[in-house]
């Protein structure tokens, strides 16, 4: 067994972090509005978070601006934690300020389980993601929209149908991808046009 | 819609990456041997991958050696992809060379969906993780063991009981955590001793 020479602060900090690690397990029980390709169940926000991190990592070279992929991945690892208290909201819904406030309070509650400096650092990163105004956050937000589109494209448009989302809405809302990557939006735009021609997006 | 000025290579590369992104959805259907704290279902390897990335990020300051947390996170994002073809193996099982070969073949198949240079880069990273000999991979491997212990500690030792894992085996197998972080192992060791005293680890 390790013999810790440092003061009690180390153990206290590790205990706080492990408390956080246990608390965020709850994201595995927040369900989204689309089903992963090939699976007959809805996706949870924890597995979605993993998926968007790898999507960002693999597509990093197609960002419009110079980005720091490591910051992008950190943002995407924490971007949905606010949903533990607020729940998931479909991207096509008009987000209310009430829901936004609930998510902000939720991420604050969770991060405050961590040692103080860490909480401050990640809260700032979360707010940067939410605002979506920097190169890193703009790319992260673009990437966040890609897997749900793939779920619909490869899954008969199940979520578009279930929620009555029109093609006009799908094109206009997801054009936001272009702000992060023009090249990625071009490819996704073509895939959405194919979905219209196939009759799964109306 | 974006107007792509570059050659067709860009679109081809994006298409390959999106193919990979869809293929790795299958990790969301690989089930592990423990249940997330508070949930009455087994954990899948995709949500586990997200969880260990955040565990590593938050505990990075407690690594024994100087590590590059960004490389550690990349390793952990891909570390279980081989399970899509090989399935999950409990850490207490003696890993057979047959299963190892299956995982190596599986990760090779998946990464080869990507553009060639990317496949090479991530295959090297996966092999580094598997070998566990560098500072980064040693820490990543230590972190990988923490959440399943927390699942058992906070979940009545459900997986230890179901698989007949003794306390001797739990202590000896997880002592590997010490090679990545002596401080973390010290804290986890105490928690395991508490689990013995509480009668959930025998």
TrEMBL record, chains A, B:
Every HD domain range: 24-185
InterPro entries: HD_domain (IPR006674), YfbR/HDDC2 (IPR039356)
Keywords: Hydrolase, Metal-binding
Pfam families to which the protein is assigned, alphabetical: HD_3
Entry coiled-coil feature ranges: none
Protein name, entry field: Phosphohydrolase
